[in-house]
Design goal:
Layout (H helix, E strand, L loop, with lengths): L2 E4 L9 E7 L6 E2 L4 E6 L4 E5 L4 E6 L6 E3 L3 E6 L36 H6 L12 H4 L7 H7 L3 H9 L18 H11 L39 H16 L2 E9 L1 H18 L6 H14 L5 E4 L2 E4 L5 E3 L1 E3 L2 E3 L2 E2 L7 H16 L13 E4 L19 E5 L3 E8 L5 E16 L5 H17 L6
Parallel strand pairs: 12-16, 16-17
Antiparallel strand pairs: 1-8, 2-4, 2-7, 3-6, 4-5, 6-8, 9-19, 10-11, 12-15, 13-14, 17-19, 18-19
């Protein structure tokens, strides 16, 4: 008895997912809970395990296709069972058969004159007759047709309301998938076309003003052109949205970590043996930031229209650099964790982020974020605030530097200290410069005292 493998729901707000890679091929033996394919959603990338042990008999959804949750994407039979043969592609219609017109979502209308028909944008060529792309999922479609006609439910709803054939739109999404912006731009531009080219349907809502024209891009045969990954597109959209939303300002403080460095050196071996995780600088920085967030609550807040939401709990985001992009898992209730708890949570979330084992809820709900470009040698940066938060702390590289030190008698001397920069990007709509600097002064004071409980 074959078992259906379905597209899982990776969170309450997730309605669909894109299969980015099949890790097994038809005929392969799979074990229960062994990853068999990778998916990408609006929230997280993940490897999906097999629900049973057996033989992968059929792959129903190819790589690059987006399908709704609970869609059957593959079938697994009993171990040793022969894989189902792939159905042959249907033969093309005889040359004498007339090619039917593609179905339209609009109400029937008189056929346009030849001159009028030329004004409408023609659909791109398809490998199969046009009706096969939308008539039934049992029929064979080209990859391009599948991508276009299986855009998000919102895009398909807009297309149906305005009588638009999605295949007639040049998509800018992954594999030329039609996005919401694509279809809204298409509908807006169509208003200026001749009346004959306008499909019957409700008049669309006013679209945002078009962006200024960008300089033409010159691409030669020596350039490599690849489609953005889903995580890269989401990152780009989120960063652009944040720059448009928040009034970004950055303040930078130098911190003397010498006392923290001594504490680490004294206890790092015992800490690793007792807790199974390394004692890095990050848990100390997290602890100092959490303490300051409790004192300056406007930094641990969000803006909701004309309202300010002050968060009682600290859900600490920690940016993790991946080979394929950036992700920010969240340490929930970080204010309730000790140095040991923060160290364990940091290692666990970072490891599962790199192996695509994060759950959607583990990358949502952050109230304040820390990013650590210093691990790559950066002195400091001006990070972009993740919405709907109002601040993000950037950690610069920590290294020994010559600095002026003053003894108890007020005498100055040149000394070697372990130092680094901390940069706070904050939303000036809510946080004033003085409050941001007071917050940073509190973080600096806590770190420079170096009095932390490692129990």
């Amino acid at each position: 008895m074959a078992t259906d493998v379905i597209m899982p729901q990776m969170g309450e707000s997730i309605a669909e997912g894109t299969i980015t890679k099949w890790l097994k091929k038809v005929g392969d033996t799979v074990k229960r809970d062994e990853p068999i394919f990778e998916i990408s959603t609006d929230k997280v990338d993940a490897e999906i395990p097999s629900p049973v042990a057996g033989t992968l008999m059929e792959i129903k959804v190819p790589e690059g296709q987006t399908v709704a949750i609970n869609t059957v994407v593959a079938r697994i039979g009993e171990a040793g069972e022969a894989a189902a043969p792939q159905p042959p592609a249907p033969a093309p219609p005889p040359p004498s058969a007339p090619k039917p017109e593609p179905p339209r979502a609009a109400a029937p209308a008189p056929a346009p004159a030849p001159a009028q028909r030329a004004a409408a944008p023609p659909p791109p060529p398809a490998a199969a007759p046009a009706p096969a792309a939308v008539a039934s999922e049992d029929n064979v479609e080209s990859f391009e047709e599948r991508v276009r006609t299986r855009s998000s439910p919102l895009v398909r709803k807009i297309a149906a309301e305005h009588g638009v054939d999605i295949r007639a739109i040049e998509g800018t999404g992954i594999h030329n998938r039609v996005t919401k912006n694509d279809i809204l731009s298409f509908i807006e531009n169509r208003q200026a076309a001749p009346a004959a080219a306008v499909a019957t349907g409700p008049r669309p809502a006013p679209a945002p003003a078009p962006e200024p024209a960008r300089p033409a891009l010159s691409v030669t045969d020596r350039d490599e052109v690849v489609a953005m990954t889903k995580i890269r597109k989401i990152t780009a959209e989120n960063m652009t949205l944040s720059k448009r939303t928040s009034a970004h300002v950055t303040t930078v403080f130098q911190v003397d970590y010498t006392n923290v460095a001594r504490l680490r050196e004294q206890h790092k071996d015992a800490f690793l043996a007792a807790n199974g995780v390394k004692l890095t600088y990050l848990p100390f920085i997290f602890r100092a930031a959490i303490q300051a967030l409790k004192e300056y609550r406007q930094v641990n807040a969000s803006i909701d229209g004309d309202n300010i939401v002050y968060h009682r709990d600290v859900h600490l985001g920690m940016a993790v650099a991946l080979d394929w992009g950036l992700i920010v898992p969240v340490i929930k209730n970080a204010d309730e964790k000790s140095i040991v708890g923060l160290a364990r949570a940091t290692q666990d979330l970072a490891e599962r982020a790199r192996t695509k084992r994060l759950k959607p809820e583990e990358i949502q709900g952050g109230t304040f974020t820390v990013t650590n470009p210093g691990v790559f040698g950066s002195l400091f940066g001006t990070p972009i605030i993740p919405q709907p938060q109002v601040a993000i702390l950037g950690v610069g590289t920590i290294e020994k530097r010559p600095v002026v030190v003053t003894d108890e008698r007020g005498n100055d001397a040149l000394g070697i200290r372990t130092c680094g920069y901390l940069a706070l990007s904050f939303d000036h709509r809510l946080i004033d410069g003085a409050d941001a600097d007071k917050f940073m002064a509190s973080v600096k004071k806590t770190l420079e005292k170096g009095e932390f409980d490692l129990g």
